[in-house]
Known about the structure:
Layout: H1 2-22, H2 25-36, H3 38-44, E1 49-59, E2 64-72, E3 77-87, E4 90-100, E5 107-108, H4 110-117
Antiparallel strand pairs: 1-2, 2-3, 3-4, 4-5
Amino acid sequence: xxxxxxxxxxxxxxxxxxxxxxxxxxxxxxxxxxxxxxxxxxxxxxxxxxxxxxxxxxxxxxxxxxxxxxxxxxxxxxxxxxxxxxxxxxxxxxxxxxxxxxxxxxxxxxxxxxxxxxxxxxxxxxxxxxxxxxxxxxxxxxxxxxxxxxxxxxx
Length: 155
């Protein structure tokens, strides 16, 4: 009886821990993107189903997280990898990939996510004027003399 109680307690602790990581903001965002992304549907087929089991870790102190969960469609299955960084109170996705089980081409979805949700990274504008320093820089130093030892380097 004691072993049954212990096994039940361990199972409940695992489920509680797995539940917290399954509800992590990065996992929520990743599941939403993967479920809506047409490239995922094209690769794996409809319907796309996502496993409720999430593995990995999220460190609130360091602000770094890496998690994964399984995905399945009518044409195949794979693993979703999501990684992120915490900036202030918010988590941002740095990597979102679908890796097919058959070893096929990975889908990199971070750019798709940024396009769909917007991003605070400024877009590159080649026509924009270069930023000029607000104060003039100091003139370069006068002549500099560098004395090298005789012989080839390393001798």
